[in-house]
Write a structure and sequence with these properties.
139 residues, alpha/beta, 5-stranded parallel β-sheet
Length: 139
């Protein structure tokens, strides 16, 4: 099944959301799509997982306690090691302001909740299509 992905294996996807329901449904959809899934329930949890697992793409909820999605995205993008990692903002609001603010902190895209399996998988495919093994140059 994963032989067409070369030696990289399936894309590693991090989903950051304080809603257990959203995390679980995203995990099910992504695993059905053949992706490796990491879950985080808030921004602080996410930052350690980004550092430890170097995901290929990150889905980040905007409204979370302690550290919101904008702050989380900005911190991830400030680290040169992860500046090129695509971050897709998740929100139940489909507002122009939210999308613009997401772009300002470095997000690549915006997905409105509730999302469908197809929307989630299309977003991963679109943003991981040209991924290369940049995180292990001399391995």
């Amino acid at each position: 099944m994963g032989s067409d992905a070369g030696e990289r294996g399936p894309a590693r996807v991090l989903v950051i959301d304080d809603s257990n329901t959203i995390r679980r449904s995203a995990e099910i959809f992504l695993k059905q799509g053949g992706y490796e899934v990491l879950l985080a329930e808030d921004g602080f949890d996410a930052l350690s997982k980004v550092n430890d697992h170097a995901p290929d793409i990150i889905f980040c909820d905007i409204l979370m306690p302690r550290l919101d999605g904008y702050q989380t995205c900005a911190i991830i993008k400030r680290n040169p090691k992860f500046a090129g990692t695509p971050v897709i903002m998740l929100s139940s609001k489909d507002g122009l302001f939210d999308k613009a603010r997401g772009r300002m902190v470095g997000s690549q895209d915006y997905l409105t909740k509730p999302f469908t399996k197809d929307q989630l998988l299309q977003a991963v495919a679109a943003h991981t299509a040209g991924r290369t093994a940049t995180e292990s140059p001399g391995a």
